[in-house]
Amino acid sequence: MKTRIIPKSPLRRVSQSLPRTIRSSYPDPIVSARCASSVSQRPGSNYVSFPGAVKSAFTSDLKFTLPSDHPALPTYRVVDQDGNIVDRSFTQDLGDEEVIQLYRKMLLISIMDVIMFDAQRQGRLSFYMVSAGEEALSIGSASVLDKQDVIFCQYREQGVFAQRGFTLHDFMNQLFANRLDNGRGRNMPVHYGSKELNIHTVSSPLATQIPQAAGAAYGLKIQRIIDPSLPPRVVAVYFGEGAASEGDFHAALNIAATRSCPVIFICRNNGYAISTPTLDQYRGDGIASRGIGYGIDTIRVDGNDIWAVREATKKAREMALQDGGKPILIEAMSYRVSHHSTSDDSFAYRARVEVEDWKRRDNPLSRLRKYMEAKGFWDEAKEKEARESTRRDVLKAFSQAEREKKPPIRAMFEDVYEELTPELQAQMKELRDHLERYPDEMPRPAVELPCIKASWYEWVLHPPKDTYLQILVGVGRDQYDASGVAIGLTPLDFQGPVESKRFIMPLEAPAPLIPSPSSQRRLPHGVIHGRPKTICCESALSIGTRPRSHSATASTSTSVSIPSFSAAAAAAAAASSATAYAVANK
Question: Fewer Cβ neighbours under 10 Å: the N or C end of the chain?
């Protein structure tokens, strides 16, 4: 049998052919370390020079080091529970109005959490996670990070998002997974994210964001080595002490330390990993001691003290950018006042009196409030006004997001391939067929259709399959129904507000009209969003009209009372108007 000779791989030849400048033009991003041969033990030396421990002294005492040999790391704070300054070197680095804005952000998160938790209990929301007791940590740390810094959150950092510019509408649209959601309704509630704000999307698996943050920081470091003109940036990653029990935590700290990555690890130690207390999670000195073990500069702070959090994070960012970059670990001590999530009943594993005691004794909002009152720029009247206005804002955003339509079905299959694969097309068809078979069991998403180039009342009488018409009540430059859906363009230039309520009934048969909430949003022209086989009209049908011969300021309308009607009746009533402008009478 002949032996077949496998030719040598050309990879080595390709590598050797690369220009020498490419292989050596950039310095090693890793801080240089001494080789083992350069620190070999010399005769008479009193210190170990082994590669794995170059600073350890020799000893003849057989002694194990015990955890009790080292005192617990201290917890840094600036103000006490009553808002009194205990760090005499502290100077308020913000104006009074800026401090108020921080407090109002904390108040916003606190009030939003209460409302959304109750909404889930009412069945209006599928899931929610509260961050009560941790508002100072998230908002305080985010307030001193640069806008260009990259952030990875876990799932209890609403304050980070709010401080970076995530609006109430952004929160609500994500929670309701409607068509305005940045994630297009594809993720479960509280999984926020914003590319514009440099915050990666929250993911459910515990601790996965920690090594991702270390890798992102390493990437930023390499970018600055290649292009020193780039602005210095750090990565901040948030997680709980429960996530620190995952292997990803240890891998992330180790790689960040050995590669000198500019990353700030922010651990909120709130006492419980869902139902597991810290006593069952670890026996060491919290999480901070682990950072020291990995060779990482570490600090423990009072997470209920927004000033301590700000000071520590500000200093941590400076240190993380020194000498080309290095990791920093912050352990912020707090207490999870809320249940883990709406799926949890924490009173099954902790006493109610314990929770109430923490609410009363060491609330981060009350601590900052007492500080502001002592400084003289906050009082009971301002507190009442802030709470009432914040609650109104939250409820308004809640109501608007709840009424918004869901994303179109096809959104589930988009944003991966430029063109849908045959497999995805088949899956989409299967889903549409399923929804068609069970129309009353599924939420009805927005369906985008092209503008119909025909008389609108003829279109109502003979609608295309699986479409419906929404009739505008009122007159305006552009025509929209009460839910904000564009249903046509007004050919003549006149102005007037669109004011109507929306009613829905099936096309197949007459039925009582059911009102739904009204809202006003402007959408692109020439698009109809709707529900299959549905017509949207007024009980007292009022179609905005204007004869073409009228002046630019004139307009008329015709009202016909119709307690219940069919599609044909609706079309006939509307046709009696002098001129009706709807879908495509252009």
Answer: N
Beta strands (DSSP E) in 48-102 are none
pTM of the model: 0.71
What's the full length of the chain, in residues?
Answer: 586
Contact 541, 574 (CB under 8 A): yes
Distance from C-alpha of 391 to C-alpha of 394, rounded to nearest angstrom: 5
Token pair of 434, please?
């399923």
Question: pLDDT tens across 260-312, in order?
Answer: 999 999 999 999 999 999 999 999 999 999 999 999 999 999 999 999 999 99
| Separation CA 164–CA 170 (nearest Å) | 12
pLDDT in tens, 337-390: 999 999 999 999 999 999 999 988 889 999 999 999 999 999 999 999 999 999
Give residues with Cβ within 8 angstroms of 322, minimum separation 6.
Answer: none
CB atoms within 10 A of CB 246: 17
* Per-residue exposure over 499-537, b if at least 16 CB sit within 10 Å of its own CB, e if not: ebebbbbebeeeeebeeeebeeeebeeeebbbbeebbbb
Residues 407-441, buried b or exposed e (16+ Cβ, 10 A)? bbeebbbeeeeeeeeeebeeebeeeeeebeeeeee
The whole-angstrom separation of Cα 221 and Cα 443 is: 47
- Is residue 404 exposed (0-12), middle (13-18) or buried (19+ Cβ within 10 Å)? buried
Give the Cα separation of 15 and 35 in Å (integer).
26
Q: Domain residue spans in the chain?
A: 96-403, 410-452
Residues in contact with 107: Cβ distance below 8 Å, sequence separation at least 6, in sequence order: 365, 386, 387, 390
Structural contact between residues 161 and 245, judged by C-beta atoms closer than 8 angstroms: no
CA angle centred on 559, ends 555 and 565, rounded to 5° = 140
Q: What is the dihedral of CA 423, 428, 431, 437, to 10 degrees?
A: -120
CA–CA gap between residue 340 and residue 338 (Å, rounded): 6
CATH architecture for residues 96-403: 3-Layer(aba) Sandwich (3.40)
| 3-class secondary-structure state, position 76 | strand
